[in-house]
Amino acid sequence: MTVSLGAPSRVVSSHSALLRPTSSRTAPPGGPVLPDPPAPTSRQLGIVAIVLSATAMGAAGLFGRKATPDGAVLGEALTLGRMVVGAAGMLVLIALSRRLGHLRRTRLSWSVVGGGVLLGLSLATYLSATVLTDLSRAVVLHYLGPVVATVLARILLKESIRRLDALSIGTAFTGMLLAAGFVGDNRAGGEHETLGTVLGVASGIFYGAALLCYRYRTDMSSDARCFWNFVFGAVAAGAMVLATRPDMSGMTAGHWIWAGGFFVVCGLFALGLLVVAGKHLRAAELSGLSYLEVVVALLIGMMAFGESVTLLAAAGAGLIIVAMALPMFARR
Q1: 260: in domain
Q2: Which of 199, 63, 204 has its CA nearest to residue 130?
Q3: How many domains does the chain have?
Q4: How far is 290 from 286, CA to CA, in rounded Å?
Q5: Would residue 22 count as lying in a domain?
Q6: φ, ψ (nearest 5 deg) of residue 35
Q7: Does 59 fall in a domain?
Q8: Is the CB of residue 294 less than 8 Å from the CB of residue 302?
Q9: Which are the contacts of 140, defined by CB distance < 8 A and separation ≥ 6?
Q10: Residue 241 pLDDT
Q11: What single-letter DSSP state applies at residue 26?
Q12: Distances in whole angstroms, Cα of residue 273 to Cα of each of 192, 247, 260
């Protein structure tokens, strides 16, 4: 494995627009490979990818609840399955497109390895946090990630944070606090509140760092990047499974069917498109649009599980929708 961030080579593919890489700028010796500003067509592809990805990610609660027996805690195990199925699915797609040779020739770098590992850790710690603390608090702490990614992109990649970008992120984060019930909720925390909060913060930091990693190595085709992202995510989730040793003895055939849907929809589809979006959008745009997941989860909870939506939560969802639209009006 070559761990390097040297000047990337251009890769041209005619299979699909999703596989078309963007160009890169080479920083001074020893520095990172800095991505060029996305072209108009590339930017539109990134917007479509993140909207579809966030929608599928928002359905994770539905699949996760249906796949989990009563009283069980299977977050790490479901995350591992999510990554393994994603890696296998990408390998099949690459083989069908006769690009296995390209995959073997693709050099790895720390950003590719780190992106997968960090995402696996983020999803595993987030699911654990939802068990140990209030769901609203876990969601809020997890979505520190886009803010972390935007700040790090400003420091490390020198990406500009326009006033419209800052307004979008701030509006989305405020709306997310309201939609998750974090504002105006005086419920007392559980006995594992401290550990849950720590895991939630870790989830947000891991998620933000993973989003930042997707802005490196834009020379790598999306199919190869997705495959390695799933592989190293599975490694991280597998380590969590070994540490927690979840009990899966209560799973029935119905649970496994829902788990399979979770692996495909929230794994291969959602996380694969997240990598595509990360290649074609600036961190600020990716951050604002990713908050769509909160709105989707809110609607699914209301329609599938009869969860009540307060006036503050509805107002928060409205703010998120407004924030999502703001990056689309940014000057290209």
Answers
A1: yes
A2: 199
A3: 1
A4: 6
A5: no
A6: -75, 145
A7: yes
A8: no
A9: 176, 177, 180, 182, 200
A10: 92
A11: E
A12: 34, 31, 18
- The tokens describing 218, both together, are 């834009």
What's the pLDDT at 8? 36
In this prediction the pTM is 0.72
**Residues for the chain: how many in total?**
332
Q: What are the tokens at 124? A: 């595993």
In tens, the pLDDT along 164-179 reads 878 887 888 888 778 7
Question: Rounded to whole angstroms, how far apart are CA atoms 165 and 169?
Answer: 6
* Euclidean distance between CA atoms 116 and 109, whole angstroms: 11
At 306, list the tokens: 């009869």
Is the separation of the CB atoms in 327 and 164 below 8 Å?
yes
Indicate whether 63 belongs to any domain: yes
In which domain, by residue range, is 203 found? 38-329
Residue 248 CB neighbour total at 10 angstroms: 16
User: HEC string of 27-57?
Assistant: CCCCCCEEECCCCHHHHHHHHHHHHHHHHHH
For residue 95, what pLDDT band results from cuts at 50, 70 and 90? very high
278 CA to centre of own chain? 9
- On whether the CB atoms of residues 202 and 83 are closer than 8 A, the answer is no
- The number of angstroms, rounded, from the C-alpha of 32 to the middle of its chain's C-alpha atoms is 22
Whether 40 and 13 have beta carbons less than 8 Å apart is answered as no
Tell me if 292 sits within 8 A of 227, measured CB to CB: no
Cα–Cα distance measured from residue 110 to residue 98, given in angstroms and rounded to the nearest whole number: 26
CA dihedral (70, 75, 80, 86) positive or negative: positive
Strands of the chain, DSSP E: 24-26, 33-35
End-to-end CA distance of the chain: 37
Residue 309 is classified by DSSP as -
